[in-house]
């Protein structure tokens, strides 16, 4: 009886593609209803990660330890140098690739994460395995890799090493079987994360993700079809046509399956055939091919290293690009961490540059597409290392200086042309018209507050020599609140020409609790104390700094909140002015509206600084006199709000040199010194509304922008086409 046919069964790679497509379709159909699938995807990724650390340990120990002394010496000197050179060349291309990202003028509200102290990275613990077990527990992959390599090298000359090598090999095989079992559920994770991304990501986010995809494809094509083949042809007698002909089968296999391991036999045989064709098939050369290829496979290839580009994209994506000075650290950390899985390396690298770990899911979703392209780079990397080792180590290089000049000339020209062309294309592809000013210009005070306490339209500055007690205000039916015009985000006029802001909202609430209406009276900062004493208004607001000198003339309430000192400067100078120590050397012209006390203290210590007093903040951003001043002294909270109106400006936080502590200051309301009755009432009122969470709520809205825009529900077929759900 004939055996029953089992029928067609898709490969794992095909299954994952199917899962991704089904996930995307599910997300588009159900929209935000499938947001919960993100939890399932995260769980699957965590299962994938559980064997990575021990596998790095045992696989490197067994792979290196089983070598004999002669092979090890040859590999770790000449062949190792070739591998290191290819890493360096690849990292140069990867670190240059972010230039393809288009320039976007963007701005955001203030975030408390900007002023929270960031944990310093202990680079000694990261790279030196003083305690390998601690390194494994803390996820310090570079230190774990160095320990594993050191132990593997040490075992090479140990006589009775077989038991240890066998144990490590057996453990590696067992861990590999666990991974193979877990991989069977990986399509579930792919489906879940694809559904989550397609159902929750906005159109703007998807548009930005295409920047990464295009830049990544260009980088992989450059490395696989230009840089690595040209490197081979420059230092060997092989032609470009020869290199591409022998590698084509492995390239197609890797791209179609996403599996590098199954390409090793193809690379091995084709490499030997190419050596034979050019008469370079000596016994030593063929032996090196047999030894170098499997060893090179255990080390990170350029295909893996290309995912470092995602770290730079992640910073660009959220508007916090990775600092240029951190590029070398990201490159070295990426190389060492990629001895393990990319699913461990990416979260580690994101954390090392203080980017949200949540972005890892974005990488996982895209990795099943990008993985096909980095497979091309991986195959060509293995081919280049193997053939270069066989030719250069055994036969040497004719005229090495000329070969090096030829390669770097072609490498430089092709890289510049390809990246420049990609940048130009992406600049036209991405829409830069993002009107951030509409975010803050459209904000308004809650309707329930304005309904309880109506604003009067009087702008008359009527002198009232008598102090307005709480009883007087209630009898009058109006509390007069002094404010500064254009003091974003505390008191300013929105796009509807309504007076709004954090302090305006507090004024409405104070009036509502008193049971009276509110009249807003504008004042100049220099005249505030006199205006209060003359009774032009009962209380002054607008983010007033508590100043020891001003205390002699006005009475301050309890602290309303604490703000952080900063400089508003053109975007390209933010990094420069973030180093406060530079202010002690540079000649800087700083404009200010408030903070006179701080200016006086600074003038005594920093004689090189020139301060100019402005009446209104808008004067600093005067388009008719751009950059008339080098910087504007204000709070970070206000600076971020102003950057929404003027996105080409950024905020540099002021820190104490040496300590890194932020300069912060309290803000409060001001009253006439003799108005003790109203002062007592407002102090107790502040305690009450703070306990109710009202001040925190206004801070979240006006300072951090929570709720400043109503997030529209993600488009979906089930809601917007079929109308089955609202």
TrEMBL record:
<feature type="transmembrane region" description="Helical">
    <location>
        <begin position="209"/>
        <end position="234"/>
    </location>
</feature>
<feature type="transmembrane region" description="Helical">
    <location>
        <begin position="36"/>
        <end position="58"/>
    </location>
</feature>
<feature type="transmembrane region" description="Helical">
    <location>
        <begin position="12"/>
        <end position="30"/>
    </location>
</feature>
<dbReference type="Pfam" id="PF00497">
    <property type="entry name" value="SBP_bac_3"/>
</dbReference>
<keyword id="KW-0812">Transmembrane</keyword>
<dbReference type="Pfam" id="PF00375">
    <property type="entry name" value="SDF"/>
</dbReference>
<keyword id="KW-0813">Transport</keyword>
<dbReference type="InterPro" id="IPR001991">
    <property type="entry name" value="Na-dicarboxylate_symporter"/>
</dbReference>
<feature type="transmembrane region" description="Helical">
    <location>
        <begin position="330"/>
        <end position="355"/>
    </location>
</feature>
<keyword id="KW-0472">Membrane</keyword>
<feature type="transmembrane region" description="Helical">
    <location>
        <begin position="288"/>
        <end position="318"/>
    </location>
</feature>
<dbReference type="GO" id="GO:0016020">
    <property type="term" value="C:membrane"/>
</dbReference>
<dbReference type="InterPro" id="IPR001638">
    <property type="entry name" value="Solute-binding_3/MltF_N"/>
</dbReference>
<comment type="similarity">
    <text>Belongs to the bacterial solute-binding protein 3 family.</text>
</comment>
<keyword id="KW-1133">Transmembrane helix</keyword>
<feature type="domain" description="Solute-binding protein family 3/N-terminal">
    <location>
        <begin position="478"/>
        <end position="706"/>
    </location>
</feature>
<feature type="transmembrane region" description="Helical">
    <location>
        <begin position="136"/>
        <end position="158"/>
    </location>
</feature>
<feature type="transmembrane region" description="Helical">
    <location>
        <begin position="407"/>
        <end position="426"/>
    </location>
</feature>
<protein>
    <submittedName>
        <fullName>Cation:dicarboxylase symporter family transporter</fullName>
    </submittedName>
</protein>
<feature type="transmembrane region" description="Helical">
    <location>
        <begin position="185"/>
        <end position="203"/>
    </location>
</feature>
<keyword id="KW-0732">Signal</keyword>
<feature type="transmembrane region" description="Helical">
    <location>
        <begin position="246"/>
        <end position="268"/>
    </location>
</feature>
<dbReference type="InterPro" id="IPR036458">
    <property type="entry name" value="Na:dicarbo_symporter_sf"/>
</dbReference>
<dbReference type="GO" id="GO:0015293">
    <property type="term" value="F:symporter activity"/>
</dbReference>
<feature type="transmembrane region" description="Helical">
    <location>
        <begin position="375"/>
        <end position="395"/>
    </location>
</feature>
<feature type="transmembrane region" description="Helical">
    <location>
        <begin position="79"/>
        <end position="101"/>
    </location>
</feature>
């Amino acid at each position: 009886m004939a055996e029953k046919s089992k029928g067609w069964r898709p490969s794992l790679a095909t299954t994952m593609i199917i899962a991704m497509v089904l996930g995307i379709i599910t997300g588009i159909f159900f929209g935000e209803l499938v947001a919960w699938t993100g939890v399932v995807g995260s769980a699957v990724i965590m299962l994938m990660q559980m064997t990575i650390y021990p596998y790095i340990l045992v696989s490197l120990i067994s792979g290196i330890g089983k070598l004999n002394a002669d092979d090890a010496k040859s590999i770790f000197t000449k062949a190792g140098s070739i591998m290191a050179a290819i890493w360096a060349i690849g990292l140069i291309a990867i670190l240059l690739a972010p230039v393809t990202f288009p320039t976007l003028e963007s701005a955001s509200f203030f975030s408390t994460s900007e002023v929270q102290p960031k944990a310093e990275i202990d680079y000694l613990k990261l790279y030196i395995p003083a305690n390998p077990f601690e390194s494994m527990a803390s996820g310090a992959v570079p230190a774990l890799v160095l320990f594993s390599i050191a132990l593997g090298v040490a075992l090479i000359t140990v006589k009775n090493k077989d038991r240890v090598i066998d144990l490590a090999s057996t453990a590696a095989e067992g861990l590999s079987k666990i991974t193979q079992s877990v991989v069977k559920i990986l399509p579930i994770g792919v489906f879940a994360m694809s559904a989550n991304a397609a159902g929750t990501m906005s159109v703007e986010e998807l548009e930005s993700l295409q920047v990464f995809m295009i830049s990544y494809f260009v980088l992989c094509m450059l490395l696989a079809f230009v840089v690595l083949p040209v490197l081979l042809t420059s230092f060997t007698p092989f032609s470009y046509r020869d290199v591409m002909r022998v590698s084509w089968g492995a390239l197609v296999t890797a791209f179609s399956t996403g599996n590098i391991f199954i390409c090793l036999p193809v690379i091995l045989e084709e490499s030997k055939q190419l050596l034979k064709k050019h008469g370079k098939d000596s016994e030593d050369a063929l032996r090196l091919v047999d030894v170098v290829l499997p060893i090179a496979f255990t080390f990170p290839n350029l295909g893996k290293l290309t995912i470092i580009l995602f770290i730079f994209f992640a910073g660009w994506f959220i508007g916090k690009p990775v600092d240029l000075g951190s590029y070398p650290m990201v490159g070295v950390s990426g190389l060492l961490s990629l001895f393990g899985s990319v699913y461990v390396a990416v979260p580690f690298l994101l954390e090392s540059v203080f980017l949200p770990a949540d972005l890892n899911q974005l990488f996982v979703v895209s990795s099943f597409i990008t993985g096909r392209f980095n497979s091309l780079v991986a195959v060509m990397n293995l081919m280049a290392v193997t053939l270069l080792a066989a030719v250069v180590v055994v036969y040497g290089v004719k005229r090495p200086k000329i070969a090096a000049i030829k390669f770097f000339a072609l490498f430089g020209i092709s890289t510049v042309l390809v990246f420049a062309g990609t940048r130009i294309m992406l600049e036209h592809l991405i829409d830069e018209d993002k009107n951030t000013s509409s975010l803050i210009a459209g904000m308004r005070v809650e309707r329930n507050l304005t309904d309880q306490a109506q604003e009067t339209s009087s702008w008359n500055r009527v002198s009232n020599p008598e102090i307005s007690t709480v009883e007087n205000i209630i009898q009058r039916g109006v509390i007069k609140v002094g404010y500064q015009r254009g003091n974003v985000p505390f008191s300013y006029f929105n796009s509807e020409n309504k007076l709004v802001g954090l302090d305006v909202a507090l004024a409405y609430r104070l009036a509502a609790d008193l049971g009276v209406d509110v009249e807003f009276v504008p004042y100049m900062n220099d005249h505030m104390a006199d205006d209060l004493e003359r009774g032009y208004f009962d209380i002054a607001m607008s983010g007033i700094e508590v100043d020891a000198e001003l205390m002699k003339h006005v009475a301050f309430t309890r602290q309303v909140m604490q703000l952080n000192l900063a400089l508003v400067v053109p975007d390209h100078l933010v990094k420069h002015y973030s180093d406060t120590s530079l202010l002690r050397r540079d000649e800087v012209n700083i404009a200010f509206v408030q903070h006179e006390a701080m200016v006086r203290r600074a003038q005594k210590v920093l004689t090189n600084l020139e301060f100019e007093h402005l009446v209104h903040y808008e004067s600093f951003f005067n388009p008719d006199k751009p950059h008339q001043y080098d910087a504007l002294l204000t709070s970070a909270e206000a600076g971020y709000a102003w950057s929404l109106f003027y996105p080409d400006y950024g905020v540099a936080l002021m820190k104490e040199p040496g300590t890194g502590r932020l300069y912060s200051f309290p803000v409060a309301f001001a009253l006439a010194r003799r108005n003790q009755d109203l002062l007592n009432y407002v102090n107790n009122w502040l305690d009450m509304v703070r306990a109710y969470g009202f001040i925190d709520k206004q801070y979240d809205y006006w300072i951090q922008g929570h709720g400043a825009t109503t997030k529209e529900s993600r488009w979906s077929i089930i809601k917007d086409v079929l109308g089955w759900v609202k």
